[in-house]
Amino acid sequence: MSLGKRNALPRRPRRDEAERPFWISFSDLMTALMVLFLVAMTVALLAITDEISATEDQKAAREDDIAKLMASLQIATADFPGITVRGRVVDFGDRARFDSNSHKLSEAQARLLRTFVPKVLAAARDPLGEKWLKRIVVEGFADARGSYLHNLNLSLQRSERVLCVLMAGPPAPDALNDTDRQQVRDLFLVSGASFNALKESAEESRRIELRLEFLELGETRGPSRQQALDGDSRCPLDL
């Protein structure tokens, strides 16, 4: 082969020149993927932020509804001096005070309960009550005298006494009607606080309160009992 022909052979491309287009395309691909990742993250963060904002709005609306419901109960106490609403608690104060080491209420106190509690039941039947009210807890309290277990039992008996008063049918003075008594049965629970929440004096500590509990967001109320009243309104505390 002549020297001229040998010099005419094509020059082989350098390795870096052959690979350079591939690396440029790969770099562009990585940049595009990074941009897509940032866009996806931005969309996800916006969705989470919107969800949190919506939940906070729902919580605020729930608190506003509950505040309105409690305000309506506060208005209802205007005709019952001595009964007050504190937050989500109805305090009967001196109007339902117990004697020392006793779970009994006077006839006047019993009539007061049977007159006032229908106001609470009316609030429970209000659209806001239907939407949020979960249950009503009757809390009995005792003073610091006596043992802890004795006072715990006594406070429970005081709560039970309130239910006995409310479930009493005719001929009890101002007896609740059947609809109200069924609602009491469905909504009310008893609780005893012994002397864990003392007032300034022993007399003030021997009291009862109604604590209203409300559904959380997404929580549903359990099914109500459909059974008719059994007709036996005798209080077990008196048997």
Question: How would you characterize this protein structure?
Answer:
This protein is an alpha+beta fold. It has a domain at about 60-215: OmpA-like domain (60s Ribosomal Protein L30, Chain: A, 2-Layer Sandwich). The chain is about 55% helix and about 10% strand. It contains seven helices and five strands, in the order ααββααβααβαβ. A five-stranded mixed β-sheet has the order 1-2-5-3-4. A hairpin with a 2-residue loop joins β1 and β2. The longest helix is centred in the first third of the chain and has 62 residues, at about 15-75. The termini are far apart. The mean pLDDT is about 85.
Strand order of the largest sheet: 1-2-5-3-4
- For the report, how would you describe the main beta sheet? 5 strands, mixed
The radius of gyration over CA amounts to 36 Å
Strand content: 5-15%
Number-wise, the strands total: 5
Please tally the helical runs, counting DSSP H or I stretches of 4 or more residues.
Answer: 7
| Structural class based on helices, strands and sheet pairing | alpha+beta
Low-confidence parts, pLDDT < 50 over ≥5 residues? none
Instruction: Write the CATH architecture name of the domain at 58-217.
Output: 2-Layer Sandwich
CATH topology term of the domain at 58-217: 60s Ribosomal Protein L30, Chain: A
Sum up the overall morphology in one term. Answer: elongated
CATH homologous superfamily title of the domain at 58-217:
OmpA-like domain
Distance between the termini: 130 Å
Q: Please bin the fraction of helical residues.
A: 40-55%
In round numbers, the mean pLDDT is 85
- Topology as a string of helices (H) and strands (E): HHEEHHEHHEHE
**What is the CATH class name of the domain at 58-217?**
Alpha Beta
Oligomer: single chain
